[in-house]
Amino acid sequence: MKKIFAIVIVVLFITTIAKAQDGWVTKKIDEKVSVRFPGEPKEVDGGVFLFIGKDSTIYISMVVKEKLPDEIDLKKLTSDQISEVFKKPEFENKFKSVITRSVSNSKIEDFKDGTWNGLPSYDISGVITDSKAKFML
């Protein structure tokens, strides 16, 4: 009985996940990146796409191309080595700088290292100073 119950829960969970993506729109951001939005986004600036949900949640995507220091050639590094580069304070500081330059009048309030599917990731939150709007990346 427990096994049947567990299978039913898994099927319901998978069905819910599949339904959650119905109607989402895939937008090609550049030649290598596509992003899914819950509705048709508007291009608000060259390569910056924005969608505002019914609950006022703002979905935004952009590709930031920033030159890395000369000693870092990502094409010659393994994924493990790239992960180590992402953990270095110099890289994190450059990443923070790119965000604050890319998002006008922004201030980062919290920046945490994390992992997602075994890969390095960042949890970032901040505020747009002139409107007091909060953002999370």
How would you describe this structure to a colleague?
The chain has about 140 residues and is α+β, with helices and mostly antiparallel strands. The protein has two domains: about 40 residues, no CATH class; about 70 residues, no CATH class. Helix content is about 30%, strand content about 35%. It has three helices and eight strands, in the order αβββββααβββ. The strands form three sheets. The chain has a three-stranded antiparallel β-sheet, with no helix packed on it. Strands 6-7-8 form a three-stranded antiparallel β-sheet. The protein is globular. The N terminus is likely disordered.
Which class do the helix and strand fractions yield? alpha+beta
Q: Please summarize the sheet with the most strands.
A: 3 strands, antiparallel
Number of domains: 2
Summed up, the helix count is 3
Number of strands: 8
* Alpha carbon gyration radius: 19 Å
Measured between the Cα atoms of the first and last residue, the distance is: 42 Å
In round numbers, the mean pLDDT is: 74
Q: What string, H for helix and E for strand, traces the elements in order? A: HEEEEEHHEEE
* Net shape: globular
Give the strand order of the largest sheet, numbering strands 1, 2, ... along the chain. Answer: 3-4-5
Gist of the model:
Helices cover 31% and strands 34% of the residues.
Attribute tags:
alpha+beta, three-stranded antiparallel β-sheet, 31% helix
Write the layout of secondary structure elements.
Elements: H1 2-20, E1 25-28, E2 34-37, E3 42-45, E4 48-52, E5 58-61, H2 79-87, H3 89-102, E6 106-116, E7 119-128, E8 133-136
Antiparallel strand pairs: 1-2, 3-4, 4-5, 6-7, 7-8
